[in-house]
Each structure stands twice: as structure tokens, then as C-alpha cells.
Design goal:
With about 210 residues, the chain is mainly beta. It has no helices and 15 strands. It has one domain. Strands 1, 2, 5, 9, 12, 14 and 15 form a seven-stranded mixed β-sheet that branches. It is globular and about 45 Å long.
């Protein structure tokens, strides 16, 4: 039996204006999407690894990198994982257990700490088109994030992202944001970037 599973990853941020930093916990968005054009870009460094859950939970390990497209250091970069969608609806985030649910399916991440949305200006709402469906968060929600750290100008910091999903997932999207601590001299930043999409395919056969 042949089955193809697509995992779609996109990261989006809203263009915005921000003032000088007041504390290390204040973050601003540094990328509009995950493909070329934003200050920080999500890149795939290697093929993903897959563990079959034998009818229960499948696990994917993606080997990504956070690429700094600028010439100056981006400080204390985080990759926030905010929304999940499938072709029919936006999934609901369950703050207490850090999972996304919808259509009797679940999505979660392995080994990540959580970060309060009230400490970042990353969006609490994102609308995905075709068909239109809107994911929402509360400012009080604490969502999983990947700690990237400082990215030197022109450099790429590798990281792994481990995703667990129900085995009957056929197609889903995850939307997140790169954020970073602003430099003290920064008075304003307008987010830049272009639409990004990373597609990973798996084909396996069963007897």
C-alpha cells in the first residue's frame, strides 16, 4: 500500500513598528515569512527523519537552520510555533498541554520550552487562505519555541524540530515567527520578507 504524506511548514510575521528596547524580554519580529527576503530565513539543511507510530503517533525530526540575511548580528533569536492548520480548519491550541487539536487529530512538539505571548509582539492571529481559516491565540498563552540564540551576520544556526502527529494526518501546516531582542540603538524596524513554504514528502509502501 502506497501513501504519501506532506508536511507543510510556513512561518509568518506581521510588518510593524517597534521602539527602543526596555528589557531583554521584549522581542520584535525579524522575518515576514520563511523563504528568502526576510532578515531571518528558515532553511532546510537535510532530509527529515521519520519514525512510524504503528497506528498511533508518527514522529518527524526536521533539520532546519535559521539564516541571517543581514550583515549584523541578530540577538537572542527565538522561533515561536504559533498556529496549526489542515485543509479544512485552523486547529485549537490547548495551553495547558501545549498541543493543537482539530478533526480528531493532534499535533505537538518534543522537548521544547514555552514562551508567553504577552512577552512578544508576534501575532496572536493569522489567517490562511484557500480556503480561508483563521488561527488565534491569547496573550496569556505560553507556546513552544526553539531557542536559536545569536546569529552572526550572514550566518546560519542549525536546529532540529521534532513534531508528533496522529498517523492519519495527510496534510497540515504550521505557522510560526522568528523574533529577536532589539539592539539598544534600534529605534524602529519594519518587518520584511516574502511568502515562504517548505514542503517535505514521505512515501512508504506496505505489504
Amino acid at each position: 500500500m502506497l501513501r504519501t504524506t506532506k508536511i507543510l511548514f510556513a512561518a509568518t510575521l506581521l510588518g510593524m513598528l517597534t521602539t527602543q528596547a526596555h528589557a531583554a524580554t521584549f522581542h520584535y519580529n525579524v522575518d515576514d515569512q520563511t523563504l528568502p527576503g526576510g532578515p531571518v530565513e528558515l532553511v532546510q539543511l537535510d532530509d527529515f527523519d521519520f519514525v512510524d507510530g504503528d497506528g498511533l503517533t508518527d514522529q518527524y525530526t526536521f533539520h532546519f537552520g535559521a539564516k541571517n540575511n543581514g550583515g549584523t548580528v541578530q540577538q537572542d533569536v527565538l522561533f515561536l510555533l504559533q498556529f496549526a492548520f489542515d485543509p479544512s480548519l485552523a486547529y485549537t491550541f490547548n495551553d495547558g498541554v501545549d498541543t493543537w487539536t482539530g478533526n480528531d487529530n493532534t499535533l505537538s512538539y518534543v522537548g521544547l520550552s514555552t514562551y508567553s505571548m504577552s512577552d512578544t509582539d508576534a501575532p496572536l492571529l493569522w489567517t490562511k487562505l484557500s480556503p480561508t481559516r483563521t488561527g488565534t491565540l491569547l496573550a496569556s498563552d505560553t507556546i513552544p519555541y526553539v531557542q536559536i540564540g545569536d546569529i552572526p551576520g550572514g550566518g546560519t544556526v542549525p536546529f532540529d524540530l521534532v513534531v508528533q502527529v496522529n498517523e492519519d494526518f495527510a496534510n497540515f501546516s504550521v505557522v510560526g515567527s522568528f523574533v529577536a531582542v532589539p539592539e539598544p540603538s534600534s529605534l524602529a524596524l519594519m518587518s520584511l520578507g516574502a511568502l515562504g513554504l517548505l514542503v517535505a514528502r514521505r512515501v512508504r509502501s506496505r505489504k
